[in-house]
Amino acid sequence: MASFVERLDGAAEATHSLVCVGLDPDPSLMPVSDVAEFNRGIVGETAEWACAFKPNLSFYEALGLEGWTALERTIASIRELAPTAVVIGDAKRGDIGPSGEAYARAMFGVWEFDAVTLNAWGGRDTMEPFLRDPERGGFIWCRGSNPGSGDLQDVETVTDEGAEPLYRRLARESLQWNGKGNVGLVVGATVPQQLAEVRRLCPEAPLLIPGVGAQGGELEESVRKGVDRHGRRAIFNSSRGIIYASVGRDYGEAAGRTARQLRDAINAVLEEEGKGWR
Amino acid sequence: MASFVERLDGAAEATHSLVCVGLDPDPSLMPVSDVAEFNRGIVGETAEWACAFKPNLSFYEALGLEGWTALERTIASIRELAPTAVVIGDAKRGDIGPSGEAYARAMFGVWEFDAVTLNAWGGRDTMEPFLRDPERGGFIWCRGSNPGSGDLQDVETVTDEGAEPLYRRLARESLQWNGKGNVGLVVGATVPQQLAEVRRLCPEAPLLIPGVGAQGGELEESVRKGVDRHGRRAIFNSSRGIIYASVGRDYGEAAGRTARQLRDAINAVLEEEGKGWR
Predict the structure, then answer these.
(1) What is the rounded average pLDDT for all residues in chain A?
(2) Angle of helix A65-81 versus helix B65-81 axis, rounded to 10
(3) Do residue A151 and residue B95 have CB atoms under 8 angstroms apart?
(4) Angstroms from A74 CA to nearest CA on chain B
(5) pLDDT at residue A216 above 60?
(6) A12-51: per-residue pLDDT in tens?
(7) What is the pLDDT confidence band of residue A84, given thresholds at 50, 70 and 90?
(8) Is the pLDDT of residue B216 over 70?
């Protein structure tokens, strides 16, 4: 089997795309009532333009038992309609001892995600269950783009070389946790300076970059600062911007158009940088 | 309706107990195959000796769809057999924007937990959806007892008055997030010095203290350092120590005996401190 980064690189190469489609179904915004049907429409129309899909588990959990059935059907749709795509469970998980092991079984054993987003507050041993298998990846939430993201992430910490914000320290630390080569980081598109810092510290890490589209990130700057020296290893997630591009019956087609536009806009920046697809 | 802390105080008063029973079902350790049946046996035998029950969601998530049904039945059993007990969803949740809102709907709307454990890595706005309702509580994971808990939580941060470990800064910060009076903190029983620090900074906050029992915490010291000046507002969680007290068919009775012993051991310390139940 391919390693996680080989899978991710291959998925991007197959679609010439660094787009990740976030599947965050909100029944109050959907033109159809069945979440799995809605998602299937989105996946079918965007599969050609996206290297990854990212269901955020909160939206399924909020629907009770039905939500989990919808997630199961959604993952099956992605595997069928977008067989090369990487499927990321956006779960921000992380817990100690047997609880962390159980979450990892859930993410990889039950749902069979290719990767999962992680919250490293508990430290190295809470990440380990998710990073044991080189075929699966973990994207550690490093620096967000929400109003309170600085409350802990930007706190200045004491180091031998002077003060350093905590998110940078976490980025450096994550290199030590990368024995299987499958550690990625989550950094928001709306914080380009922090994105550049993380890329500098972790030149080869896959970065998951949410906040393009509905969250209003400056796409061009985040592409320039987020990709590695080959113009790869960064995936740009849009959720609401794609899946609610139309709130009418044409939601699938609208999602497809928007995903394609996002892919093309990213690729235009890569071209300008001399890092386009060959 | 009573506020969350009134509910918690009342549950402790009703049982003269500061014991929380952690419901972390692991089918490989259970003498019966049905998780909900196993938990019902535990709840029935421990209800008299516990003020709170704490299902850790990871263990249910790891069982797939069946696990969620088992969690639903487990919560119903607690409501029936331990009607005054506080039910805490141990989920370590926290996410930005609509995702955080969705997790809060899941925890309080779908599962109807009285409280939830939280991970504050995302900062204040990621906690807000969980702290909006004064009848529900949030226990923020402040300082763990696992090997890597110091990786982020103990990092020395720069303040005007010199260096301060991050967990203490978070404890102080949490006081600012406590507009509804429903913010608690999670601090491990095996780190008594940190527990004392958190109690000093947050004299009235409810503390959820895992690690007594199977995790090997020193009970007496954690009781002395964890309770408030009245000998209340700290709940001591044991999961495996209680629920796997016997791996035989008498698991329920053994759990009841063990929960009662833990309650009595805690109460003996309270008596010595002149803070017993009147």
Answers:
(1) 96
(2) 170
(3) no
(4) 14
(5) no
(6) 999 999 999 999 999 999 999 999 999 999 999 999 999 9
(7) very high
(8) no
Instruction: Give the gyration radius of chain B's Cα atoms.
Output: 18
pLDDT given for residue B218 in this prediction: 85
CB of A276 closer than 8 Å to CB of A267:
yes
Question: A118, A138 in Cβ contact below 8 A?
Answer: yes
- Residues of A within 8 A of B151 (CB-CB) are 120, 123-124, 173
CB-neighbour burial class of residue B163 (10 A; exposed 0-12, middle 13-18, buried 19+) = exposed
Residues in CB range of A26: below 8 A, 6 or more apart: A59, B98, B102
The phi and psi torsions of A257 (rounded to 5 degrees) equal -60, -45
Q: How confident is the model at residue B278 (pLDDT cuts 50, 70, 90)?
A: confident
Query: From the CA of B187, how many Å to the nearest CA of chain A?
Result: 12
pLDDT, one tens digit per residue, over B62-75 is 999 999 999 999 99
B126, closest residue in chain A (CA to CA):
A148
Comparing CB atoms, the residue among A102, A123, A150 nearest residue B62 is A102
Tokens linked to B88 = 């805490």
**What is the full DSSP assignment across A213-266?**
STT---HHHHHHHHS-TTS-SEEEEESHHHHTS-SSTTHHHHHHHHHHHHHHHH
Q: Is A30 left (phi over 0), alpha (psi -120 to 50) or beta?
A: beta
Q: Say whether A103 and B150 touch across the interface (CB within 8 A).
A: no
Is B121 part of the contact surface with chain A (CB cutoff 8 Å)?
Answer: yes
> According to the model, what pLDDT value does residue A147 have?
93
Residue A11 phi, psi dihedral angles, 5° rounding? -65, -40
> Edge-to-edge strands of the sheet including B156-159?
A162-165, A156-159, B156-159, B162-165
Assess B179–A contact: CB distance below 8 Å, yes or no: no
Domains detected in chain A: 4-272 (3.20.20.70)
Find the radius of gyration of the CA atoms of chain A.
18
Amino acid at position B35, single letter: V
- Give the whole-number percent of chain A exceeding pLDDT 70: 98
Residues in chain A within 8 Å Cβ distance of B95: 56, 58, 92
What is the mean predicted confidence (pLDDT) over B126-148? 97
Selecting from A119, A156, A215 the residue whose C-beta is nearest the C-beta of B157 gives: A156
Query: CB-side exposure of A123: number of CA atoms within 13 Å?
Result: 20
Q: Using CB atoms, pick whichever of A109, A122, A152 lies closest to residue B120.
A: A152
